[in-house]
Amino acid sequence: MVDAIDRGLLQALQIDGRVAFSLVGAVLGVSDQTVARRYARLRNEAGVRVIGAVWPEAVGRQLWLVRVRCVPEAVAGLARALAKQAETSWVQIASGGAEVLCMVQAVTDTPAAESTVLSRLPRTPRVTGVSAHRVLHAFFGGTESPLTKNGPLTAEQCARLSPPAAKRVTGPVELSTEDNALLEALALDGRAGFRSLATATGWSQTTVRRRLAELRSGGVVYFDVDPALPGSWTSAGLWLTVAPGELVAAGEALAEHPQVSFAAATTGVSNLYASVQCPTGRALYEYLTGPVAALPGLLSVETAPSTRVVKGASPIVG
Structure pTM? Predict the structure, then answer.
């Protein structure tokens, strides 16, 4: 069971994945030992991890949503093959076991279908279709999650926990071999200590501390909590078609919905995608027939239930 202290801790980690437990304890009114103990329990029992992630545009990459349709007996193997690729995240089995959905980071101006991810997949007649949808604008996601909207902390408490604002990235950043080693270590454990990060990079702890601060303030790296909602949820991807003139209004409205963990404008037949989580199937039905149906300019909705997440935001395969 996740109580108010756990939820407050999770929200604090979403605000700043490397926040000191002493500050979290002060905000929540408990000791830092209690915070450390709660985090260890969430890691061990709920699989919660803080991960370091890189903004795609900061390193000259684009984000794509890739749908691979196949016969049901091939879906598990296909999902595992995609999950093993470094460029993928959020690999999940959807649409009743007939589709794999994942996010792919591709080099700018390279179509997702030409990326190393799909080219490495074994050619098989059991794949019945592939479609790639470039993310043009994210309305919600990245540093924000359902914890941001649904957590118990007040605005004042959130302000105490918030790190300095990052700069807006204006062009691709050149990363060194040591930078990449640092980012790979943070992708596995966003709260890894400076001694561990120094070992991974070959730098001194002082250099690691300085470089990580630069990458954060420069808008290259951010931290996320995976999973954002521990426990059992009914999850689905929504592929929405919205009148072009209402796309911004619909996307901004979606971003405010407590059920939405990611929302973005995309290319393709549909032009708006959202990942949603509801406590039950009934709650999903009520959400679809209520807030979703009321979106401005909505023309159609395709709902693709997610039955299993094979790989989340972390490179660790579940």
Answer: 0.89
E strand or H helix that includes residue 215: helix 205-217
CA–CA separation, 190 and 169 (whole Å): 21
140 phi and psi angles, rounded to 5 deg:
-155, 140
Residue 117 CB coordination number (10 Å)? 22
DSSP assignments along 24-68, one per residue: HHHHHTS-HHHHHHHHHHHHHHH--EEEEEE-GGGGTEEEEEEEE
pLDDT, one tens digit per residue, over 189-220 is 999 999 999 999 999 999 999 999 999 999 99
Q: How many contiguous H segments (helices) and E segments (strands) does the chain have?
A: 12, 10
Q: Nearest 5 degrees, angle CA 311-CA 317-CA 318?
A: 80
Identify which of 274, 258, 277 has the alpha carbon closest to the alpha carbon of residue 266: 274
CB 76 within 8 A of CB 190: no
Q: How many CA atoms lie within 13 A of 181 on its CB side?
A: 12
Contact indicator for 126, 97 with CB cutoff of 8 Å: no
